[in-house]
């Protein structure tokens, strides 16, 4: 696989070539089909980029948290000793996740589990396991895929899942007054209010691993300490977690996870039912208070982004501009675009396909504890499999003190 720099350069080059095709005069069906293929390749490249970024983040996390092997003070630790310790650690956690009793473990493996106290909570008899490092890794994954969930504000209330009230203040309508002689001033208080962060909902996912697959992990772990059950579960659970949070953020879950789209303030309605044009983006931009502009970003799905690549601004230039120098995928009116795939396509009549604003000021994702994983030994025994139930408690609330930090663009019906 090409390195990260090569992938980013290839993606930018492909986007530019696709723009040239769709912006040409008298575009043929064959050219449209070629454009669609190129955009599909762009999506694949972005997925590869996200994977490489995630691997690099995991490696950085490992380097920063891994405890050096114990030895005599001042003794050098060679690569073979580190490699051996990695294998012991992976084997110990693998045995724990697969239900092995501590008495069945080697002394070195039991020592590893005692040192890595953040891995487990409770006793092995309960089958409970908390992957302490999974939470930060999940949020890193949000940033790696450029999801909207990585842009909003996060509030953690461990052990408290009840509704939580927070204060809001709006003093934006008050200013100075001119006093005439011998006239008293009238006091004007700020407008105080409360916003309720809803109770957290339990969200969960279940993964089953057959005993044959567990045996395969055992075989691989001998020669490759990175090919272990821990890494497999981190990856699969993390991706499901992120996919679910992003979907709830956009669409809501019908309970205590509100839709950011529904809670956003109308910024503009497009003039045409076929989708937005440059003037619609200008109208949305000018309706956001300048106080929020420094951190404001656009949000849309990849279908909308592909549609926008064929549009021009008022000067006849593409207003979708890839910017490899800043690391941003693209920008409109100088503001970065965040891709959120659960959003509707903006070129569909009546759809809300574009958001714009400072999302950390307009939405809060709340958790009342970390992400837990529980091993299910008996439930799937008749299928010769072991289940791993991952669950957490989350809620999401749109917040607006009165000056509308998040706007939405609605396509004309």
From TrEMBL:
**Which cell locations does it reside in?**
Virion
Region (Disordered) location: 59-84
> Where in the numbering of this chain does the Phage capsid-like C-terminal domain appear?
161-400
**Principal location listed in the UniProt entry:** virion
The protein's name: HK97 family phage major capsid protein
Q: Which organism is it from?
A: Silvibacterium bohemicum
């Amino acid at each position: 696989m090409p390195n990260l720099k090569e992938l980013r350069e290839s993606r930018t080059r492909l986007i530019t070539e696709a723009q040239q095709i769709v912006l040409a005069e008298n575009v043929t069906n064959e050219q449209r089909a070629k454009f669609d293929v190129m955009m599909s390749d762009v999506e694949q490249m972005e997925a590869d980029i996200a994977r490489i970024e995630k691997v690099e983040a995991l490696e950085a996390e490992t380097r920063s948290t891994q405890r050096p092997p114990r030895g005599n003070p001042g003794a050098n630790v060679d690569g073979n000793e580190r490699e051996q310790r990695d294998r012991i650690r992976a084997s110990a956690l693998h045995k724990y996740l697969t239900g092995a009793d501590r008495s069945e473990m080697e002394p070195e493996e039991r020592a590893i589990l005692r040192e890595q106290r953040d891995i487990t909570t409770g006793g092995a008899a309960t089958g409970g396991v908390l992957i302490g490092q999974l939470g930060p890794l999940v949020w890193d994954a949000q940033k790696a895929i450029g999801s909207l969930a990585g842009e909003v504000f996060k509030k953690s209330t461990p052990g408290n899942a009840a509704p939580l009230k927070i204060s809001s203040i709006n003093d934006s309508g008050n200013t100075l007054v001119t006093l005439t002689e011998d006239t008293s001033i009238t006091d004007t208080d700020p407008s105080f209010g409360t916003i309720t962060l809803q109770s957290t909902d339990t969200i969960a996912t279940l993964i089953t691993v057959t005993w044959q697959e567990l045996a395969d992990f055992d075989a691989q772990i001998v020669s490759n300490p990175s090919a272990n059950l821990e890494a497999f579960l981190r990856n699969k659970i993390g991706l499901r977690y992120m996919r679910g949070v992003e979907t709830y953020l956009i669409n809501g879950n019908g309970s205590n996870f509100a839709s950011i789209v529904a809670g956003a303030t109308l910024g503009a309605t497009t003039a045409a039912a076929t989708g937005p044009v440059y003037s619609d983006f200008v109208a949305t931009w000018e309706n956001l208070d300048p106080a929020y502009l420094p951190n404001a970003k656009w949000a849309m799905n990849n279908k909308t982004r592909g549609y926008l690549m064929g549009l021009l601004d008022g000067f006849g230039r593409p207003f979708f501009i890839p910017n490899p120098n800043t690391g941003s995928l693209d920008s409109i009116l100088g503001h970065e675009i965040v891709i959120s795939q659960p959003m509707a396509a903006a070129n569909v009549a009546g759809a809300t396909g574009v958001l714009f604003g400072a999302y950390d000021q307009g939405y809060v994702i709340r958790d009342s504890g970390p992400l837990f994983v529980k091993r299910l030994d008996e439930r799937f025994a008749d299928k010769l499999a072991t289940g791993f139930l991952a669950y957490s408690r989350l809620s999401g609330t749109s917040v607006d003190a009165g000056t509308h930090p998040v706007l939405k663009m609605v396509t004309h019906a």
